[in-house]
Specification:
about 25% strand, two-stranded antiparallel sheet, 7 strands, EF-G-binding_C, FBP domain-containing protein, alpha+beta, about 160 residues
Length: about 160
């Protein structure tokens, strides 16, 4: 992923107002290992049920404000972006308000993601879920990273396009 500036990140959000984007608590961008990231994602340290996802594709940067569910499953589940298996506590339902009037009326879409939004770290093997054996995959790490990015981009497209 290319390095992104704070103004680029704040202006990229497709499902919140400029004021909301301005108030978001960003991670320390100087500490981000940009070359290793599929997308930039983080949980707000001041509001741990608020998450953010920022994806760059062909020079277009799109961000999504996510809301993390308080409820947790006891069953093992799979992240819909990186396809990592987690115990129930390692997966959370995240919802995103639809852009524009639809979102202001309360319309959202949701997906199950790594609770810590660290998909890239799981794909690269930097993190491993405790107590869950992962599927054996024949895809290369590069192909798994591309799949993860495409799944995130697909979520953003569904968010923007479905009624």
């Amino acid at each position: 992923m290319q390095e992104l500036s704070e103004p680029t990140i704040r202006s990229s959000f497709v499902n919140c107002s400029k004021g909301e984007a301005k108030r978001l608590n960003l991670p320390n961008l100087n500490e981000v290992a940009w070359g290793n990231q599929v997308f930039l994602s983080w949980l707000d340290p001041k509001s741990p049920l608020k998450g953010c996802l920022v994806v760059e594709q062909d020079g277009v940067v799109q961000g999504v404000l996510l809301q993390k569910s308080k409820a947790q499953s006891k069953a093992a589940q799979m992240c819909q972006f990186c396809l990592t298996l987690h115990p129930g506590s390692g997966i959370s339902l995240y919802t995103a308000a639809r852009p524009g009037e639809s979102g202001r009326r309360g319309n959202t879409i949701g997906t199950y993601l790594c609770a810590n939004l660290a998909c890239t770290d799981y794909v690269l093997g930097k993190k491993k879920p405790v107590g869950i054996r992962q599927m054996d995959e024949t895809l290369s790490v590069e192909d798994r990273l591309l799949r993860t990015k495409n799944n995130a981009l697909g979520f953003i497209e569904r968010l923007k396009n479905e009624s």
